[in-house]
UniProtKB/TrEMBL annotation:
CDD domains listed in its UniProt record: LuxR_C_like
Organism domain of life: Bacteria
Entries under SMART domains matching the protein: HTH_LUXR
InterPro entries: Sig_transdc_resp-reg_C-effctor, Tscrpt_reg_LuxR_C, WH-like_DNA-bd_sf
Spans traversing the lipid bilayer: none
Organism encoding this protein: Streptomyces machairae
Protein's name according to its UniProt entry: Helix-turn-helix transcriptional regulator
Domain HTH luxR-type: residue ranges: 54-119
Keywords: DNA-binding, Transcription, Transcription regulation
Length: 123
């Protein structure tokens, strides 16, 4: 259904369908694929955010990864996060690297789409 919506040009509906599929999949790999597709389509919708698209994946992260990803999504640098949490910059980078793999994100730019931030405006 999501692919059909996408082919017809209903990108936001397709993104939402993929987001709902994330929760429905029992196979973690299929869920990750659906999540990645949902995020990619949502990025093409000029910053539109819906409840289905907000906070898709934080449950897959460790508590520390969730904390670091949330701070990174607000725009803090690795150094700022390290100072705030009294960690080394390298430890912050390692946690982010592991989180990117779990989230299906390639870089920091995708984080605002994956984390529910009440006042954030994704780029």
């Amino acid at each position: 259904m999501a692919q059909e919506l996408e082919q017809r040009g209903f990108l936001l509906f397709a993104a939402e369908a993929h987001a709902h599929a994330v929760r429905a999949h029992r196979d973690p790999r299929a869920a990750r694929t659906a999540r990645t597709r949902a995020v990619a389509l949502a990025r093409r919708c000029q910053g539109a955010r819906t409840p289905a698209l907000s906070g898709l994946v934080l449950g897959e992260l460790t508590t520390r990864q969730r904390q670091i990803v949330t701070l990174a999504a607000t725009g803090l640098s690795n150094r700022q996060i390290a100072e705030k949490l009294t960690l080394s910059v390298r430890t912050v980078g390692n946690h982010l690297y592991g989180a990117y793999a779990r989230l299906g994100a390639s870089d920091r730019g995708a984080l605002p789409w994956l984390v529910e931030l009440p006042d954030a405006q994704p780029a």
